[in-house]
Structures are given as structure tokens and as C-alpha cells.
Amino acid sequence: MKVARVEDIKRMDELASTKYGISQEILMENAGASVARLIESFADASGLRVVVVAGVGNNGGDGLVAARHLASQGADVNVYIIGDLEKITTLARINLDRIMRMGLPVEHVAEDISGLSEELHQADVVIDALFGIGLNRPVSGLYARVIDAVNGSGSLVVSVDIPSGVNGDTGQVMGVAVKADYTVTFGLPKPGLLIYPGAEHAGEIYVARISYPIELLEDENLVIETNDPVQLPERKPDTHKGDYGKALFIAGSRRYMGAPLFSAYSFLLAGGGYSRLATASNIVPYLGSKASEVVYEPLLETPSGSISYANKDRLLELAEWADIVAMGPGLTTEEETLRLVRDLVPLIKKPLILDGDGLTAVAGALELIKKREAPTILTPHLGEVSRLTGISVERIREDRIGFLRTLCRELNSYIVLKGAHTLVGTPSGKIYVNLTGNPGMAKAGSGDVLVGVIAAMLGLGLDVGEATRMAVLVHGYAGDYVASLEGIDGVTASRMMRVLPRVLRELRENPEDFYRTYSLQTL
Ligand SMILES: NC(=O)C1=CN([C@@H]2O[C@H](COP(=O)(O)OP(=O)(O)OC[C@H]3O[C@@H](n4cnc5c(N)ncnc54)[C@H](OP(=O)(O)O)[C@@H]3O)[C@@H](O)[C@H]2O)[C@@H](O)CC1
Ligand SMILES: Nc1ncnc2c1ncn2[C@@H]1O[C@H](COP(=O)(O)OP(=O)(O)O)[C@@H](O)[C@H]1O
Ligand SMILES: [K+]
Questions:
Q1: Which fold has domain 246-522?
Q2: How far is CA 514 from CA 96, 105, 120, 174, 324, in A?
Q3: Whether this model's pTM surpasses 0.90
Q4: Ligand 2 pocket, 380 CB below 6 A?
Q5: What is the ipTM of this complex?
Q6: Ligand nearest to the CA of 187
Q7: 8: CA distance to ligand 3 center in Å?
């Protein structure tokens, strides 16, 4: 499903009226009606105590339309307007007049919110229609007090388009924001509903189509999408292991024995053909007993047990053999090893996945990435990408998508910005928001599994962008699968690795289960 930023919605709006003659008023009527419809789907409207908290913009207008529809279903609706009535938009004003003529109780809250607070506590449902995509500065004063009162009401909260106070594009909370049980968003979901902390405030998201033409909802200019499964290439009968990718993993050290195992073995468990692990010779016997299907290349070590620079030529030979190279998991930050990584990055003429300490190696030397011709996939979490670019985590959080689009273009790389709802960016500026995964995955080793799965998706024959985003989807799906089997605290890299085959089978055989679990519901 496409995801629309504020600028995208404004373009859709413009086209809706100029190209299709679909007026704002029609869109608002459908929007408000869809809010009422959602509420009627879980509660009998007659006698239902509803409080609508409306701003003076069109978000408020939607709330007033919902008030009218619910009242006409017999609900007991109280409306509170917050804001300068001099500035009320035309459409909100029209809908305010309608409900006043219907005799609905409407109160303009200027300063004292005690009446409103009382009503909020008595309400069965509160409709949050203060701000939508028009939020353009931190919330303060009376608005902030009203939002606090809504959050303190203990009533069920339905937010109109976006929880008021959440930035629709970035998911940042602008001072204070409504914590909704449901959000009914119009036309397409906004990034701020899918990126934390906004995603936390949205509650269950329903996407109301409100009669936008399909061409607008699927417009190629919409660069952000939810990360939906791609068709996995089938494993044809007349094939051999080389047809599923020959992957070289340059990973591990005496200190980190799990990282090379999780990445090199996950490659095989996610369908890869031939996994070759070049690692510190000391740990090969141990790893061999844990993953005998992996082929090992014992490497010379530094005194601290990391991979020594002396292996450079041998590693370049191995890279010639491979279809895919993954470098970084568990290498340590031993200076000699980082120097080896830096020298290898521009010389490896194959698709390269750089993760963990491999990313540390190129921090501050990004031209090594830029001058690569073969595809590059970087898999940093927030801390790593901050180190990579020298931009603070706080700054990045202000606009993750904008930051990622710029970085992917600058580095001509595919970048996986890992975290809750991982983002995958492509050099052409596309962004995919991943909806699989859970906090149980926030555990050492989890990212190493992802490296192997990315290599496997490439081995299966997906193109680089599809392979990267499908791997993120599969990886999170594996994390969810383990959490459902073992409980969220028991999600470990080993358990995620073990369930990879079943996850792929699920996606091959029952993709509809995926959509049922992870797709945003439409209204
Ligand atoms: N587009 C569509 O397709 C459809 C859109 N529809 C609906 O319209 C909504 C957008 O409406 P909107 O543009 O009138 O802005 P909205 O979000 O109501 O904000 C109102 C005003 O608040 C102000 N303000 C901002 N921040 C503030 C702050 N912190 N503290 C105090 N005030 C603040 C700011 O005015 P300012 O003060 O800057 O003059 C702003 O103009 C959209 O979310 C959806 O619900 C639907 O009808 C269906 C179709
Ligand atoms: N709160 C969370 N919700 C969902 N997924 C998460 C969360 N925290 C981390 N993850 C996922 O877990 C993995 C953590 O990887 P990473 O940070 O590289 O750990 P490590 O490097 O220790 O393996 C990433 O794929 C990330 O998307
Ligand atoms: K709202």
C-alpha cells in the first residue's frame, strides 16, 4: 500500500478537484462518515455517549461531519470547538452550522476546560479532531491541556486522520499528542502513523478511501510504500546449489563467534545455495560443529583474534568466486581489521552487504562506498548510521525518511535503517516501511540473521531492492513467529534462524495469511 506525506495528500487533493471534480466537501463528507462507520462497527450508536473535540480546520470539519452522522444514528453527541472561530475554515463552518441547526450541544472552549474534562470522563467514545495534516508547530497552551484531558479521560479515543499532536510526515510527537485506540486516516496512511513514536499513538489504523480515484492512490510519484511481500522465485527441479547463490561471509573473530554463524547459516536456512565463511581460524572447529553445511575458510589472525590484514589477497580471490559478499558481523573494531575492510570495499566487484563493524570501518570514509559500481547494501541501526554520517540520532529522528532518501542517493546504496518498523531505502529514492517484527528482536545477534537472509533473497534471484526489503520482511516475520511460539522475551537469533524455513514456506504457500496479519485495514 502506498503511504502519503502531507505534500502528497495536498497534490492528491488538488488533482481530485481539478482533474476529477471531486470537491473537498465530498471528501470531508466521506471522511466524517467513515469515522462514524468505524464507531458503528464496534458500538451501537443509539444512546452512545460521544464527545467530539474539534479544531477550527478541516480536521475539525471531519469531526463535525462524524458528529452529524452519529447523531442521526441516535448517539448522544457533545461537540467542543477549540480555536479561534474567526479562523474557522469554510467547510468546518458549514458543518458547524448544520449540527447547530440540528440542535447538537456545541460549546466553544476558550479557557476553562472543566466542563469538557467532565464530559470526557463520561463519554463512551471521544473523537479527536483537533489537528490532522495541518499541524505545523509544537502543541501548547489550551490545545495541550485539551489533549492531556483526552488522554486522561479513560474513554475510547478515535483520532481523525492523525492523532492530534503527531507529525504526519515524521511520526514525531510535537510537544504532546493524543494516544488513540483507533485512527481513521483518509485516502492513504501517513508516514507518521507508521513510524515511532507516532505509530504508538495511532492505535489500530483504518484507511478510509473516501472516493479518491485509484490512479491517485497508486500514483508512481508516491515514493513511500508499506513493505509488502514479493513473489519468491520457485526452486526449479533442474537446478543445483550454484543456482541459489554462492555467498561469501567475511565475519567473526575469537570474541564474536555467534555473528558469523548466524549470518552464514541463515543464508542456507533462508534458501541460499552455497555458504562460505571466511573467519578467524581459531573458531572454525567450533563453528564447524554448529553449522556443518557451511564451508569454512580459516584466516590468519591478529594477536587479538580478529581477521588480520594478511588475508587481503585470499579474500579478493574468494570474492571473485562468490555471487554475493557480506562483510562485517563480529569483525571487531581492531584497527588492522577495519583497515582491511576499508581496502576491500572498493575492490569487491560483487553485490556487497556491509553490516556491524563493517559499517564502523567506513564511517567517515563514505567515498569508499560512493565509488563502488556493484550494488551496495548497508544495514545500520540508528546508532550505526549516526556514526556513519556524523549526524546525531536526534536529528535523524526528526525526519528519518527524508534523511534515508538523501543518504541512499548520496551513497548510491540500498540502506536498511533497522529498528521498530525498519525502513528500507533505495538509490532511486523509494522507501519501504516494514511492519513485521517486534521488540523481542532487540537482542544481540538478531541483525546478523538479517545479513544472511538478505544474501539468501539475492541468491534466490530477487533483484537487489526486492531482495533487501523481502529479507527485512522475512526477518521480522521470523521474529514474530518465535515470539508467538516462545513469548516475546525468548526471541533469539538462534530461534529466528531455525524458523526461517517455515517462514518462507508460509510466504510461499499462504501469502494471504501475511496480508491478514500485517495489512492496514481499509474502510
Ligand atoms: N486533504 C484531504 O484530502 C482531506 C483532508 N481532510 C481533513 O483536513 C485535514 C487538514 O485540514 P487543515 O489543512 O485545515 O489543517 P488541520 O490539520 O485541520 O489544522 C488546523 C489548523 O490548526 C493550526 N495549527 C497547526 N498546528 C497548530 C498548533 N500546534 N497549535 C495550534 N494551532 C495549530 C493551523 O492553522 P494556523 O494556526 O497555522 O493558521 C492549521 O491550519 C486533514 O488532516 C483531514 O482530516 C478531510 O476533509 C478529507 C480530505
Ligand atoms: N523494537 C523493535 N521492534 C521491532 N524490531 C526491532 C526492534 N528493535 C530491534 N529490532 C530489530 O532487531 C534487529 C536488531 O539488529 P541489530 O540492532 O543489528 O542487532 P545486532 O547488531 O546486535 O544483531 C534489527 O533487524 C531491528 O530491526
Ligand atoms: K486528529
A1: UDP-N-acetylmuramoyl-L-alanine:D-glutamate ligase (3.40.1190)
A2: 42, 45, 38, 33, 28
A3: yes
A4: no
A5: 0.96
A6: 1
A7: 18
